[in-house]
């Protein structure tokens, strides 16, 4: 009977099951994620070689002149050393880790999830998938509010494959695209694109692309040659929050 159970477990029938439970599914980059991994033993004893968590998202990548969605791993965490799980045994393994500062935020189409995996020799490895909501910290939130107060509406947010000049630790960047619907930039800009490159909890670098609106013959020529776009970098610190809207307005106005 034991041999029969092992044969079944090797194809996933009556094997161990895993379920990850988070203390909170809403978290901001740089903060602690805590939870437990619950493992329920199957019909037979099994040797667990490894338990790991991977933090993932999807991003758009160009392949053979086509845009495809691929999974990008943000980080991987080793949870425990190898052990033997007895038949029908139940274990709870606590874990905690700091969510990386460069984790994309849950805006637009961006989805972030935690995948739990068990490595079991000669068996189908059980997995679990838990989505989390990644919210901006105070500094990034202040930037988004300032841009909104300047009359811009968030149109689209996507993770895209990063060009080599912008590639950091991850192979992708998260791009926030805004359009002016009111205020002084309406009629002067087509769109504003922002990418955040966090330096610390209190500091972030911002890459902005200002897309000017074509005006007259010369303007349309500039647009056709992509000369209507200006790229600028700006370092923002926590101390900038009280005057952030004025600072962004001044910078954007120089290129509009």
TrEMBL record:
It comes from the Bacteria. Pfam families: Spo0M. This is Sporulation protein. It comes from Bacillus mesophilum. The lineage of its organism: Bacteria, Bacillati, Bacillota, Bacilli, Bacillales.
């Amino acid at each position: 009977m034991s041999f029969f159970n092992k044969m079944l477990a090797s194809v996933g029938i009556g094997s161990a099951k895993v379920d990850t439970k988070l203390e909170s599914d809403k978290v901001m980059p740089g903060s602690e994620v805590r939870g437990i991994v619950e493992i329920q033993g199957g019909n037979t004893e099994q040797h667990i070689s490894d338990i790991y968590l991977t933090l993932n998202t999807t991003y758009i990548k160009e392949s053979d002149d086509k845009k495809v969605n691929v999974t990008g791993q943000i980080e991987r965490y080793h949870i425990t050393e190898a052990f033997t799980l007895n038949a029908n045994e139940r274990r709870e393994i606590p874990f905690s880790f700091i969510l990386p500062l460069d984790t994309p935020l849950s805006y637009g189409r961006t989805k972030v999830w935690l995948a739990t995996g068990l490595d079991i020799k000669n068996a189908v490895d059980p997995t679990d998938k838990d989505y989390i909501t990644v919210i901006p910290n105070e500094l990034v939130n202040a930037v988004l509010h300032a841009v909104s107060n300047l009359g811009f509406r968030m149109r689209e947010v996507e993770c895209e494959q990063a060009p080599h000049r912008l590639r950091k630790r991850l192979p992708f960047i998260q791009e926030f695209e805004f359009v002016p619907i009111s205020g002084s930039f309406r009629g002067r800009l087509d769109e504003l694109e922002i990418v955040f490159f966090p330096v610390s909890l209190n500091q972030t670098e911002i890459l902005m692309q200002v897309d000017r609106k074509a005006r007259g013959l010369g303007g349309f020529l500039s647009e056709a040659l992509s000369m209507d776009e200006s790229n600028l970098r700006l370092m923002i610190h926590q101390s900038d929050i009280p005057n952030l809207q004025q600072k962004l307005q001044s910078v954007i106005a120089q290129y509009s």
